[in-house]
Amino acid sequence: MEKTFLLEIVTPYGLVVNSKVEEDYIPGSEGDFGVLPGHAPFLTSLRIGELHYRRGIEVHFLALNRGFAEVTPTRTTILADTTEPAEEIDIGRAESAKARAEERLKSLSKYDPAYQQEIEALERAKVRMRVAEKAPRE
């Protein structure tokens, strides 16, 4: 059995990852899931969350903002709204986004149409901050 599979992560801005990997772990909308070579085929939607994959001994972390995943025994394809590798995340910008969302939420009721947007902005900022902490240190 093959020990790797192809991982492709694509956003509207282009190809983010195109690599043979040993495993990945993905934030599914119905629960997080891991993929290994030979995985059963399926299609699912993705939530805001942390994605990571392993290539050799290196583990790579990305912040993911919704999308879809198609898993086959030899490939995982992710179509995402946005993704950011840990080392590219601006922590200061993520902290500012978190503070803005928290401040806006104070003035909104749960029934306000903007409430859910701010909850999602807060979640994106928290995920980005958490993923950024996992960036390789030099």
Radius of gyration: 16 Å
CATH fold label of the largest domain: ATP Synthase, domain 1
Query: How large a portion of the residues is in β-strands, by DSSP E?
Result: 35-45%
Helical content (DSSP H or I, runs of 4+): 25-40%
State mean pLDDT (0 to 100 scale). Answer: 94
User: Which outline best applies?
Assistant: globular
Largest sheet: 8 strands, mixed
Give the uncertain stretches in residue-range form: none
Task: Identify the CATH architecture of the largest domain.
Answer: Sandwich
How many domains make up the 3D coordinates? 2
CATH homologous superfamily label of the largest domain: F0F1 ATP synthase delta/epsilon subunit, N-terminal
Termini separation (Å)?
A: 36 Å
Q: Can you write the helix and strand succession as a string? A: EEEEEEEEHH
The tally of helices reads: 2
CATH class of the largest domain: Mainly Beta
Supply the helix-strand structural class: alpha+beta
Per DSSP E runs of 2 or more residues, the count of β-strands stands at 8
Task: Set out the fold topology.
Blueprint: E1 5-11, E2 14-21, E3 23-26, E4 33-35, E5 42-46, E6 49-55, E7 58-72, E8 75-85, H1 91-106, H2 113-132
Parallel strand pairs: 1-8
Antiparallel strand pairs: 1-2, 3-4, 3-6, 5-7, 6-7, 7-8
